[in-house]
Amino acid sequence: MLNYFPNSSVTHGMGDQFRPFAIQMVTKMGFQFSAMLIALLTIMLGSGAIASELDSGLIQGVLTRPIQRYQYILGKLGGLIILACTYATLLFSLILVIGALFGLSTITSLTFSQIITGWLLYLLLPVAILCLTVFGSVSLKAVSNGILMIFVYILGNVGGMVEMIGQYVNNNSVIGTGIFISLISPFQTIYSTMERVMVPSSGLAASAMSGASLSGSGKPASIWMFIYIVTYMLGFVILAIRKFSRKDIT
Amino acid sequence: MIIETHALTKTYGNKTACDQINLSVEAGQIYGFLGRNGAGKSTCIKMLTGLVFPTSGSGTVLGRPLGDVSAREKMGYLPELFRYQDWMTGLDLLNFHAQLGKLKNKKDQIGRVLKLVGLEGQEKYKVGSYSKGMQQRIGLACALLPNPRLIFLDEPTSALDPIGRKDVRDIIVSLKDEGTTVFLNSHLLSEVEAVCDSVTFIHKGTVVRSARMDELLMNKISLTIRAKGITEDLFTKLNKHYELQKLADGSLTCSLKDYEEIPSLAASLISNGVTLYELTPHRETLETVFMQIVGEEG
Q1: How confident is the model at residue A77, as a pLDDT?
Q2: d(CA B8, CA B22)
Q3: Percentage of chain B with pLDDT > 90?
Q4: Of B162 and B243, which is predicted with more confidence?
């Protein structure tokens, strides 16, 4: 892609002025693709975490031991979070290493604080997905839960697009719909915030790129949105514990 | 009482799985829990182990209310459909259960149960590579791990060969000798008859009978009579005192309440000119009692 712009028939002879545009695009695509991969991997890990043990009867031997049911849920969630975060860290590091090796200015110019903040936001994505998925795993069969979680994840992307379209057409009700969808599925908000930290918008390339990704309205998420996301995560964990504590293991 | 329940009931929608179950199980005995498939046995065991919550009624296990976590420290459970983490080795699985049970002397306890269930030397292999019988043995080992005061065995020999069944029978008897109460659900009635002190029959979710095994089986004696010259008049006359039945091979059977009735029956047959070839008393088996109790209930 970095070679495409200077060599295409449209931009041929225009020098390196499209290079920053291409670098931003490549970096954003790298993060987007890896975040989607992590999200799907997390859904695969979490959707059957409890449901498959309920189905197979494996859980019976565990729950007749002197442990509380909330301990079982938190233990499962903790284990899955460690696993998903390990994968996420690996992918995140890989993007940075590859970017640095190719000398992408978007990566080489990153500060330490940017990397740490971006990394933590990158980790927040699978953790948030797991909180919802574990609740689904208590309530649904593994396959149904997996399908539902993929739907919710895609819904978040749709929410970002709807909000972006609302900005373009300057229609508040469309923006409101996008925000409402983001409240149901806030994963895209987490991603877009991470993207803003890692690929900050500035200059001509940023102007050209605004709207080139599914990053919502272009405005950064407020602190209230992050308070909502934390409440969302805790809420689903509490719901999972409550539901599981009353569940008959048949 | 190590287990006591009062009107324990479990319903799933319109379906009643267990209805007003009252149980009193004394400590230190082997207690048989019998019934047909779908009678509600496993649901009842799951209520006692805290896996299923009763819709109504109450109960205690090891002196604690149903579902109390502390009671599980001295409780073992082998589920009917045993499934264990097949990616773990036998040793990993036992270590995992020892950790869940917060056991001290893990190594000693694991060694003890491996020896007891006959899996010494097999513990380093993955559970997924075990035969069904070995998986049932490792399940039994997990149940025995906390040195339980009360153990629930739901069909503990369903996957075992005759030698394995005998081994488990011996383990059950040795547990009783050590003071452990065994709550046994099995369809193998000969097995239950051989080891149980008391039994409860459950049918369509309701307890239909509870009794000590010796009382249950010594109530009636079945007698086989092979004789020549029993006239219709004599049959009618004898039938008034003994419940006579003609069998297809020409012999008769009757039920007696006491062994002391046998000489008088023999005397009346001979005095009426009957030629007696065989008079064989049979102690009633649990299978015939089961058929009478559960069969009668339809």
Answers
A1: 96
A2: 7
A3: 42
A4: B162
Tokens of B106: 């893990």
Check: pTM over 0.90? Answer yes or no. Answer: no
Report yes or no on A115 lying in a domain: yes
Candidates B51, B75, B85; nearest CB to A60: B51
- Residue A222, token pair as written in the block: 């407020």
Q: What is the pLDDT of residues B166-179, one digit of tens each?
A: 888 888 898 899 89
CB contact under 8 A, B69 and A68: yes
Task: Please indicate if any CB of chain B lies within 8 Å of the CB of A68.
Answer: yes
Contact state of B83 with A56 under an 8 Å Cβ cutoff: yes
Instruction: Give which of A56, A59, A64, A76 to mutate to test B binding, by max B Cβ within 10 Å.
Output: A64
A71 CB near a chain B CB, below 8 Å? Answer: no
- Whether residue B77 and residue A61 make contact (CB cut-off 8 A), yes or no, is yes
Set of chain B residues whose Cβ sits within 8 Å of the Cβ of A250: 43, 46, 51-52
- Top residue of B83, B86, B137 to mutate, by most chain A CBs within 10 Å, is B83
Per-residue pLDDT tens digits for A167-203: 888 888 998 898 899 899 999 999 989 998 988 865 5
* CA B165 and chain centroid, separation: 13
Judge whether residue B132 has pLDDT over 70.
Answer: yes
Which residues of chain A have a CB within 8 Å of the CB of B100?
A: 62, 65-67
- Across B1-14, average pLDDT: 93
* CA of B209 vs chain A CAs: smallest distance (Å): 25
Q: What whole-number distance in Å separates Cα of residue B298 and Cα of residue B291? A: 10
Q: Name the band, by pLDDT with cuts 50, 70 and 90, for residue A248.
A: very high
Give the residue numbers spanning the domain of A164: 23-245
What is the number of structural domains in chain A?
A: 1
Whether B72 has its CB under 8 Å from any CB of chain A: the answer is yes
C-alpha distances out from residue A143 to A5, A243, B267, B273, Å: 43, 19, 75, 78
Tell me the shortest Cα–Cα distance from B157 to chain A, in angstroms: 17
Q: Which domains does chain B have, with CATH numbers?
A: 3-216 (3.40.50.300), 219-296 (3.30.70)
